[in-house]
Amino acid sequence: MATSERNNKILLDLVQQPGNNLCADCGAPDPDWASYTLGVFVCLNCSGMHRNLPAVSKVKSIRLDHWEDSLVEFMQEKGNSAAKAIFEKCVPVFFYQPQQKDCVILKDQWIRAKYERREFTGENIYFQKVYSAELFEATLWKKGKDSKQFFKSTFLLSQKDFTLRYFIKEDSKVPKAVINMKDLNAVFQPEKIGHATGLQISYVDDERSKNLFVYHEDGKVIVSFFNAIRATRLAYLLKKNPTLQEKDLKHQLTAHCLKEGYMEKTGPTQREPFKKRWFTLCSMNRKLLYFKSPLDATELGAVFIGTESHGYSVSETSSRNARGSRWHCGISLETPERQFVFMCEQEQEQSEWIMAFRKVISQPMTPEDYSNEANLRRGK
């Protein structure tokens, strides 16, 4: 067997070993690239981001490229688990570690933080102090409430009173809004916002859900702001739940929505004409929110989703009685107060929505969920 073939076979055997069989950076299965300067196996997408760090990482395909003996020996000595022990030694609980399906900017900045800035090796705690500072300031581009344009705004996170303030004028001393950490969520939405670094911040104000849409040209700035939000949320939750540890709160810091998209809805008598609305379902607050369009600042309405034992259920429904609906894949959502009927354009969408509803319905309710349900009912 030729040396080149033998080396490729060694690498293919190495990548099957536990730890190496998932991408070192996003967890994607079956990575077929490797950084021969860092000693890690990575997926195709992450290998492209490593190429942007030529001073730190150099990559080759483990199947297609020629590997010298010395490089193969280096990969045998290192590997993903050994690299993780170095480059992820001190990752704070609040720092978001992206997965395969996350957006490019999150993965790019995770890779840069690990290997280029070496934020988590324990050599330098400067970065962690920045994220967890009592005050964290960032100037971002924010979408106008009733405009498609984005305007510069200053955002100020405070761990003193667990708030996010933002100012729309450079010299303003009075914030446009003061947002409490209690109901704040942040998630990257590049496609929805139309910018690679687009971030959606959602919060509750006077019992209504509101959205801010922001971005920054520099990926490091926006991802640092996102992780500072998570650090502030963690500090708030630790104060609220003093008996819990940081790791117990990790999944409550921020959350992706379970499902988003257009559906048509009718009114309470189901004789009203159907209207197309943008819906968002989030498991963190068990609410189905609807808006006129994806980038609306304020919800038009909300539906709380409880458990089956409390009278909530979801099923397919016939489109025969869907007066005025252009779409014909129906969903019936039963609540203790009324039946909601929605129409989807495609069966695939219908199936995904039903699955998402059932996931929320199957989750046990917390004391905070009961409070949210009562507040929503009082607001109607």
UniProtKB/TrEMBL annotation:
<keyword id="KW-0343">GTPase activation</keyword>
<dbReference type="InterPro" id="IPR011993">
    <property type="entry name" value="PH-like_dom_sf"/>
</dbReference>
<dbReference type="InterPro" id="IPR052589">
    <property type="entry name" value="Arf-GAP_dual-PH_domain"/>
</dbReference>
<dbReference type="GO" id="GO:0005096">
    <property type="term" value="F:GTPase activator activity"/>
</dbReference>
<keyword id="KW-0963">Cytoplasm</keyword>
<dbReference type="GO" id="GO:0005737">
    <property type="term" value="C:cytoplasm"/>
</dbReference>
<dbReference type="InterPro" id="IPR037278">
    <property type="entry name" value="ARFGAP/RecO"/>
</dbReference>
<protein>
    <submittedName>
        <fullName>Arf-GAP with dual PH domain-containing protein 2 isoform X2</fullName>
    </submittedName>
</protein>
<feature type="domain" description="Arf-GAP">
    <location>
        <begin position="8"/>
        <end position="121"/>
    </location>
</feature>
<keyword id="KW-0677">Repeat</keyword>
<dbReference type="InterPro" id="IPR038508">
    <property type="entry name" value="ArfGAP_dom_sf"/>
</dbReference>
<keyword id="KW-0862">Zinc</keyword>
<keyword id="KW-0479">Metal-binding</keyword>
<dbReference type="GO" id="GO:0005547">
    <property type="term" value="F:phosphatidylinositol-3,4,5-trisphosphate binding"/>
</dbReference>
<dbReference type="GO" id="GO:0005886">
    <property type="term" value="C:plasma membrane"/>
</dbReference>
<dbReference type="InterPro" id="IPR037851">
    <property type="entry name" value="PH2_ADAP"/>
</dbReference>
<dbReference type="GO" id="GO:0007507">
    <property type="term" value="P:heart development"/>
</dbReference>
<dbReference type="InterPro" id="IPR001849">
    <property type="entry name" value="PH_domain"/>
</dbReference>
<dbReference type="Pfam" id="PF00169">
    <property type="entry name" value="PH"/>
</dbReference>
<dbReference type="InterPro" id="IPR037849">
    <property type="entry name" value="PH1_ADAP"/>
</dbReference>
<dbReference type="Pfam" id="PF01412">
    <property type="entry name" value="ArfGap"/>
</dbReference>
<keyword id="KW-0863">Zinc-finger</keyword>
<feature type="domain" description="PH">
    <location>
        <begin position="256"/>
        <end position="362"/>
    </location>
</feature>
<dbReference type="GO" id="GO:1902936">
    <property type="term" value="F:phosphatidylinositol bisphosphate binding"/>
</dbReference>
<dbReference type="InterPro" id="IPR001164">
    <property type="entry name" value="ArfGAP_dom"/>
</dbReference>
<dbReference type="GO" id="GO:0008270">
    <property type="term" value="F:zinc ion binding"/>
</dbReference>
